[in-house]
Write a structure and sequence with these properties.
This protein has 529 residues and is of the alpha/beta class. It has three domains: 20-205, Rossmann fold (3-Layer(aba) Sandwich), CATH 3.40.50; 214-402, HUPs (Rossmann fold); 415-516, 2-Layer Sandwich (GMP Synthetase, Chain A, domain 3). The chain contains 15 helices and 18 strands. It has a nine-stranded mixed sheet, with helices on both faces. The protein has a five-stranded parallel sheet with strand order 12-11-10-13-14, with helices on both faces. It is globular and about 80 Å long. The structure holds xanthosine-5'-monophosphate (XMP).
């Protein structure tokens, strides 16, 4: 069994909260994950599955409701993704959103065509039926539309529920089957009453109680870990990030002294990171913490390397080697715990029922090779990042760690452009600490998704105390994003930028210039590499 199939076998499929969950069939929508998160916000457990899941597989999962996501295709195009129409006759309520609505209407006798006027962005709907999906909504409300096609006509089996001035059938329900459709997106915040519509579907139409709670998740996961692990030993790699910290905290609560944590100090960590981890997982959670001093190994592996992919490759290999050596020193290890999250699983197309499209190959999944010979435990693989943070707080992981900005596995190496040396890393580490410290003092750390310094591979001329300098340039990067797939540069106040620049130039020896990165992603990326 390879590592991936082991991982899949330790995850829940069908989910353990099977008495009350909803599934989203993913037709390639950029919003499929958002739909699942919004459903979970209503305290109904939700998972994303492939759009071509068979009716039998779906029936076996016993979902309370089925949501068909949007998607980029046109239902009438050759090769457009479809679901088995039998799904509409399972007796389980179905809500089609955008493409999902078009698919449902087409499958049940309607006609979909290219709209005379495309609708992208805000629109105003007039609601004509105020029960069911639209219970409690006013006659008119704002919604977010994003479609080129629309349902042109429906059979008499359907009742239109709402319209906009350019989209006469903006929402529908079937007369005899529990099938509903929304042309707009209730899951995005630009549809202010979208959560009411989703709640109406989940609670009133699907009959969910809305009883799913993270606390229950933690308790059930702890039980499950105990049952899986027995009296064996588990190792968990720590990186200082949220995901590995919450994984370790969860395991610690489940199996206490049977957990060993390994921190590979690769010399590429942020300032005080090693000390912070030692304090948290050695002193606070008293885990059996092993810190591997591997700075020299990594610096030797990176010596003379400037090509970013080659840096990553070498760091990856060095990490595995160091981890393996340390792991072999610990007796009785049977399991390796990893902080893989739900988006990592679905984005990598690795979930047993994940959407077909591989959006982005993530770094966390399958990070350590099968040859290590351990069985994988991935207790967070059903959670989104915000849920992991809330879980971390429930488990007593300090806010400082829970709200920490993400940090790439290869560490400062991806932010030290050009040659990597101990001196250059020190310059970067000090500059980075100032960026974070100033953003925290300005009270903006929680509002920004990521903030850090980058050391550029160029020197620039400056003048300091009447003398000419030829020193390093540091770029400051700060972005706003929730999904890290797209990001905007943060409009930090000028005064704050000024303080960051002055402090870096004054306090970090070897830097005479600071620049602020004002590129969005795309076309830039968050890291510079
Ligand atoms: P990019 O640069 O692709 O980054 O826009 C998107 C997000 O991914 C993080 N990142 C990584 N995380 N291992 C990780 O765990 C990595 O190798 C890695 N590379 C980038 C990056 O910090 C940002 O949050």
């Amino acid at each position: 069994m390879d590592q991936r199939s082991k991982a899949a076998s330790t995850s829940r499929s069908p989910p353990r909260v099977a008495d009350e969950h909803v599934v989203v069939l993913d037709f390639g929508s950029q919003y499929a994950q958002l739909i699942a998160r919004r459903v979970r916000e209503q305290h109904v457990y939700c998972e994303i599955v492939r759009h071509d899941i068979s009716p039998a597989a779906l029936r076996a999962r016993k979902p309370r409701g089925i949501i068909l996501s949007g998607g980029p295709s046109s239902v009438y195009e050759a090769g457009a993704p479809h679901c088995d129409p039998e799904i509409f006759r399972l007796g389980v309520p179905v809500l089609g959103i955008c493409y999902g609505m078009q698919l449902a209407c087409e499958a049940l006798g309607g006609k979909v065509s290219s709209a005379p006027t495309r609708e992208y962005g805000r629109a105003r709907i007039s609601i004509t039926a105020h029960d069911g999906l639209f219970a409690g909504l006013p006659d008119h409300t704002e919604v977010w539309m994003s479609h080129g096609d629309q349902v042109a006509s429906v059979s008499s089996d359907f009742v239109p529920l709402a319209r906009t001035c350019t989209c006469p059938i903006a929402a529908v329900r079937h007369n005899s089957l529990p099938v509903f459709g929304l042309q707009f997106h209730p899951e995005v915040t630009h549809t202010p009453l979208g959560s009411t519509v989703l709640r109406n579907f989940l609670i009133d139409i699907c009959g969910c109680r809305g009883a799913w709670r993270l606390g229950d998740f933690a308790r059930e996961t702890i039980e499950e870990i105990r049952a899986t692990v027995g009296d064996a030993r588990v190792i968990c790699g720590l990186s200082g990030g949220v995901d590995s910290s919450v994984t370790a905290a969860l395991l610690y609560q489940a199996i206490g002294s049977q957990l060993s944590c390994i921190l590979v100090d690769n010399g590429l960590l942020r300032k005080n990171e090693r000390e912070g981890i030692a304090h948290e997982f050695g002193d606070h959670f008293k885990t059996d913490l092993h810190i591997v001093d591997a700075e020299d190994v990594f610096l030797a592996a990176l010596d003379g390397i400037t090509e970013p992919q080659e840096k990553r490759r070498r760091i990856g290999h060095a990490f595995i080697d160091c981890f393996k050596v340390e792991a072999q020193k610990i007796k009785g290890v049977e399991f390796l715990a990893q902080g893989t999250l739900y988006p990592d699983v679905i984005e990598s197309g690795a979930a047993p029922d994940g959407p077909a499209a591989t959006i982005k190959l993530h770094h966390n999944v399958g990070g350590l090779p099968a040859e290590l010979g351990f069985k994988l435990i991935e207790p967070l693989r059903d959670l989104f990042k915000d849920e992991v943070r809330r879980l971390g707080l429930e488990l007593g992981v300090p806010e400082e760690i829970v709200w920490r900005h993400p940090f790439p596995g290869p560490g400062l190496a991806v932010r030290c452009l050009g040659a990597i040396t101990k001196d250059r890393l020190n310059v970067l580490r000090e500059a980075d600490a100032i960026v974070v410290e100033e953003i925290k003092s300005a009270g903006l750390y929680r509002q920004t998704a990521q903030a850090f310094a980058v050391l550029l591979p160029v020197s620039s001329v400056g003048v300091m105390g009447d003398a000419r300098t030829f020193d390093n340039v540091v770029a400051v990067r700060c972005v706003d994003t929730t999904d890290f797939m797209t990001a905007d540069w943060t409009h930090l106040p000028y005064e704050l930028l000024g303080r960051i620049s002055t402090r870096i130039i004054n306090e970090v020896k070897g830097v005479n210039r600071v620049a602020y990165d004002i590129s969005s992603k795309p076309p830039a990326t968050i890291e510079w590499e």
